[in-house]
Amino acid sequence: MAELTRSIGRGGRPRRLGDDTEKARKTVTARIHRALRLLDAHHPALAAHLRQAVHTGTTCRYEPAHPIVWEL
Q: For a FRET experiment, which of 10, 15, 32, 46 has its CA 20 to 30 Å from that of 72?
């Protein structure tokens, strides 16, 4: 019974081990977090802003708390 319980995901849904979409999502999230850690050493204010504005999950999105006017 314990083995069967482990093979079922949360809420009784089947576990998605090996799912390519899930692997990609986890990889992108890990890379974003790594980039933010590296950015801390060179531009802490930008790293803090991105931590608050970048949201990961099923999709990744940039949503700053306040509108930003970009000058290029």
A: 32
Q: Which two tokens stand for residue 42?
A: 């060179």
| Cβ atoms 50, 36 nearer than 8 A | yes
Give the Cα separation of 58 and 26 in Å (integer): 10
Instruction: Give the Å distances, CA to CA, from 18 to 14, 24, 28, 29, 49.
Output: 12, 10, 16, 17, 33
DSSP conformation letters of 5-52 = HHTB-GGGPBP-TT-HHHHHHHHHHHHHHHHHHHHHHH-HHHHHHHHH
Higher pLDDT, residue 8 or 51: 51
Tens digit of pLDDT for each residue in 48-59?
999 999 999 888
Query: What residue segments make up the domains of the chain, in order of their start?
Result: 18-62
